Amino acid sequence: MAIRAYGALAADKPLQAIDIERRAVGADDVQIAIAYCGVCHSDLHTARSEWAGTLYPCVPGHEIVGHVTAVGPAVTKFKVGDTVGVGCMVGSCLTCEACEEGLEQYCECGLIGTYNGETADAPGHTLGGYSEQIVVKDRFVLKITHDESQLAAVAPLLCAGITTYSPLRHWKVGPGKKVGVVGIGGLGHMGVKIAHAMGAKVVAFTTSESKRQAALDLGADEVVVSRNADEMAKHADSFDFILNTVAASHDLDPFMDLIKRDGAMCLVGVPEHKHPALNVAPMIFSRKTLAGSLIGGIPETQEMLDFCAEHGIVSDIETIKADDINEAYERMLKSDVKYRFVIDAATLAA
After folding, report:
1. Residue 349: pLDDT band with limits 50, 70, 90
2. Residues in CB range of 324: below 8 A, 6 or more apart
């Protein structure tokens, strides 16, 4: 069935309205009328082929919320009318050790991304959420219990929310823990909100004095301007955990110096260029850990959505029309958004 979408036909061309095909609903499929789709920096990287391997036409979007319009005969968890979400994955092998543990994001055969992933459906790769509709295997559909009035602001939880929730949970963030969040953007603002709701003492790190009050408003207990050496020095060897959300290449040593013995810093942003070489001596002498984390598995993503609903957490967003996407990309490059753009899929209608 042909539906309207917004996508790129080449790396050097702007996104435009296009018609795409979605497969018929199979036995274990869920068909979803998309209401809103968040705009992630990964969308821009992929559409413009800044990461190798982009397949065209490219329809980005992996922060999807909407309503079920049809289900296959084998589907038992969802029914027509349910409010649901789809995140960064729509498939995996389901049989490897990672998949069997509910860690599909680390599938040993490779996850199938919501866009630009290999598929038998035309055109041979997945097409994402900048569209009116999507058909997804039920295993990769999430239940949403937030109020309908919050649905647009829920969309970014499907990427930004789980990307920050997963490492915070893995490193057992909670009461009595001192936690840093580096970067106050699409990911970082969610990290501050979630860590605060988990009961930790939250310190936000920003390069800009102008973001100090905004970070406090998000739930940070304290804000440190990372370019201020005196402010940084006050926190030496004191953090249990630091969540670093910055996707640009930067010096990691000043943040590693803030972690106490047996503490950890986790990176969730992939830089275009490598970070400068790390001084490993402080890590060796204080048993510090530098780690990374990729989104979350389906069970944990559902847990995150339920946690956020229980604590009233949504993303801070700016809703846009589909034909505003190219301007939104340019603004995103300038960090001119607080903190996530979300496409109103109703504006896709021809």
Report:
1. confident
2. none
The answer to whether the predicted template modeling score (pTM) of the entire model surpasses 0.70 is yes
Quick one: which of 157, 203, 197 has its CA closest to 296?
A: 157
Q: Taking a C-beta distance cutoff of 8 angstroms, is the pair 117, 90 a contact?
A: yes
DSSP string across 99-144: HHTT-GGG-TT--EESSS-B-SSTTSB---SSBSEEEEEGGG-EE-
Helix (H, G, I), strand (E, B) or coil at 173: coil
Q: Do residue 9 and residue 90 come from a single domain?
A: yes
- Looking up residue 103, the CATH number of its domain turns out to be 3.90.180.10
Residues 137, 255: one domain? no
DSSP strand pairing (83-86 vs 142-143): antiparallel
Contacts of 213 (CB under 8 A, 6+ apart): none
Cα distances from 254 to residues 85, 111, 205, 282, 291, in angstroms, run 38, 34, 12, 11, 16
193-238, pLDDT tens digit by residue?
999 999 999 999 999 888 899 999 999 999 999 999 999 999 999 9
**From CA 245, how far away is CA 266, in angstroms rounded?**
8
| Torsion angles phi and psi, residue 17, rounded to 5 | -70, 130
pLDDT of 52 reads 84
For residue 210, the domain's CATH number is 3.40.50.720
Please tell me whether residues 134 and 238 are part of one structural domain.
no
Residues β-bridged to residue 131: 5
* Number of domains making up the chain: 2
Structural tokens at position 285 = 């002498």
Tell whether 7 and 142 lie within a shared domain: yes
Dihedral angle over CA of 310, 112, 295, 293, nearest 10: 160
